[in-house]
TrEMBL record:
Gene Ontology MF terms: peptidyl-prolyl cis-trans isomerase activity
PPIase cyclophilin-type domain segment(s): 132-298
Species: Dietzia aurantiaca
Presence of keyword Lipoprotein: no
Alphabetical list of Pfam families matching this protein: Pro_isomerase
PROSITE patterns per UniProt: CSA_PPIASE_2
Functional summary from the UniProt entry: PPIases accelerate the folding of proteins. It catalyzes the cis-trans isomerization of proline imidic peptide bonds in oligopeptides.
EC number(s) given by UniProt: 5.2.1.8
Spans traversing the lipid bilayer: 31-50
Keyword flag Calcium: no
Name of this protein: Peptidylprolyl isomerase
Length: 307
């Protein structure tokens, strides 16, 4: 039989064991709580890091790519009744009749290009060669200033949209004329048609201002730019090649430059002159020697962002 002293010793031992067990449980709870805190903190830090990385990726993507919209162009030129202009004289009536003939031409020879979809590169260059019956005109297009227009031009070139077409307009006048360009890109040859969709304006911001106080900008010799109507965002497939410094409102999208060898070919074309400089003549601003685009090919494309 145990003595009172032994029973007290056993009681103290059980108490110590209970206290140690309690201490272990409390320690485990503290460790678990600390672990939870660490996991939560790691989760918060991880989310912040992930969110920052996503923001950085989004910023990088936005710096390299742009969403271009190419709305369908459903507008079509409509004929005008010559009788409505009889009181303005036979010359005006003749102009209306020629316009109506051009409307018929558009209906007979219009082409539709396939508009691009998806995002397009904001940077990178494209080497383009326009092969004409007068020689080759190499271009270098730069997406940085006009990504949507350059993307469309490259796409149309790859589709063969410009092949076997004629440049319909050449502005040749006295020395110092405000506009010195060869205009191409309309398969109907009328200047009234495009690819069936339109392209947003991407106006230049770095052109020199004309010295005459007109507010015009100088489109320098060797510039490739998109033609458009007076309406905003009305460009399509028509483009013009500047062979002498020209004065225009700064609203025509600049796509790139013409090579020196291309300018020599362009000079040869312009030296031949135009059929007429009389606005009332049916051949007004028509190149005297027809300028036929045999094909437009896309060469090297460099500096494109990685997909």
């Amino acid at each position: 039989m145990s003595t009172n002293q032994e029973r007290r010793a056993e009681a103290r031992q059980r108490l110590r064991e209970q206290m140690e067990a309690q201490a272990r449980r409390e320690k485990q709870l503290k460790i678990a709580a600390a672990a939870v805190v660490v996991v939560v903190l790691l989760g918060i830090v991880g989310f912040v890091v992930w969110n920052k990385a996503e923001e950085a990726r989004a910023e990088e993507y936005a710096a390299n790519w742009i969403t271009c919209e190419y709305p369908e162009d459903t507008a079509a030129p409509e004929k005008i009744d010559p009788a409505e202009y009889e009181d303005q004289g036979p010359e005006v009536v003749a102009e209306v009749e020629r316009f109506n003939e051009q409307v018929d031409e558009v209906g007979e020879s219009k082409r539709d290009g396939e508009a691009l979809t998806g995002d397009q590169p904001r940077r990178g260059t494209a080497e383009i060669t326009i092969t004409t019956n007068s020689g080759e005109i190499p271009l270098r297009l730069d997406r940085e200033g006009a990504p949507c227009n350059v993307a469309s031009f490259v796409s149309l070139s790859e589709q063969g949209f410009f092949n076997d077409t004629e440049c319909h307009r050449l502005t040749v006048a006295e020395e110092g004329a405000a506009l010195s360009v060869l205009q191409c890109g309309d398969p109907t040859g009328t200047g009234l048609s495009g690819p069936g969709y339109t392209v947003v304006d991407e106006p230049p911001t770095d052109l020199a201002v004309a010295d005459d106080g007109s507010g015009m900008s100088v489109y320098p010799r060797g510039t490739v730019a998109m033609a458009k109507s007076q309406a905003p965002n009305s460009a399509g497939s028509q483009f013009f090649l500047v062979y002498e410094d020209s004065m225009l409102p700064p609203e025509y999208t600049v796509m790139g430059t013409i090579s020196e060898s291309g300018l020599e070919v362009l000079d040869k074309i312009t030296d031949a002159g135009v059929k007429s400089n009389d606005p009332s003549n049916a051949d007004y601003q028509r190149p005297k020697r027809a300028v036929e685009i045999e094909k437009v090919t896309v060469g090297a494309q460099e500096g494109l962002p990685e997909e």
